[in-house]
Amino acid sequence: MSVRAKEALDQLQPYKAAATIESVVRGYGYAREDIIKLEGNENRMGASPKIAGALARMSQEYSYYPDLNVTLLREKLAAMHGISGENLIFGNGSFELISLIANAYIGRGDEAISVTPSFNWYYNVTIMNEGIFCEVSTRDDLTIDVESVIDHVTDKTKVIFICNPNNPTGHLLPEDDLRYLVENTPDSVLLVIDEAYLDFHSSDYVDTVRLALSKSNVILLRTFSKSYGLASFRVGYGIAFGEIISNMSKVKCPPNISMPAQVAAVTALEDREYLQKVLDNNRIGLQLYYEAFEALGFDYIKSSTNFVFAHTGLDANLLKEEFLKRAIMIRSGSDYGYNEWIRISVGTYEDNLRVVSALHEIVQDIKTREI
Ligand SMILES: Cc1ncc(COP(=O)(O)O)c(C=O)c1O
Predict the structure, then answer these.
(1) 2 located within any domain
(2) 109 shares a domain with 239
């Protein structure tokens, strides 16, 4: 008889992440540099060019364990947000922070609420902790109905996971809705607001850091993986009241942020000019995609992120396959239960032109085949 894993794992499949470049190199035989990866909402502009020099300068320190307190990065972020360093916790990407939240707060029979569609990792961490995952449907236009979210709270609810702006839709919660959530989440429930993409939102928005720290049961999650282009380094951080930070710290592996990752994140934070270039490129890229979708008659969602979710009326898996034949990786909405939707990340300006031209060609091809 084999060793029996936790019963809850019977309900779980390994998390289905975006495909990797390596898998496409192996599967299709393309040269790595010819592949345009727009499947995982990464940053095709790359990280600040100053990072390479900063890493070279610290290479003599590779043999030491990293700074467990993440001191320099903590100080920089505390100053940037105007908060105390004690309100920060660091994770091996926000993936780890989400796990830490569940490990600290969700036990057998506890409920966690999120919306559908949204980031799927919230489900996995709830189930692996023997919790019950409660999915609240979005409205027909895929916006989040915050009243419905609060209506689903029961006396077993421990956590609400809200991704804002949401992945895969790209919608940003209207400010009043965000305030409604913060004000109406009972004190006994932890409200997690995952802001992985908030940097890309281009106009004014409520100061979510102030909003979160005005309550003792809210945590914001941010990451260096998207706007700062450091997905491979794995740095995310949470902003919350001290007690939440302290509970999460108890279940955290101590050396979870490597020293190269800390140095890279600090250098990225200091290079505001580069961040601005990324954000400008993103704005232009989104516009290009919108125009292409409009020309093709696709419905799409105006995005506050670095990706767009579009309803094509065609088989999304087929579209994904056709893009792959052109060495472009996009996400099929079928991973989120939307079989005619595609999610495409913004790339460099040249990438985006290639996407638009491939899209026109593919749609034309499919329509010709259908005739
Ligand atoms: C909404 C959301 N949260 C968290 C993550 C994980 O990010 P990280 O690279 O910081 O672990 C992602 C990654 O795509 C995401 O889309």
Answers:
(1) no
(2) yes
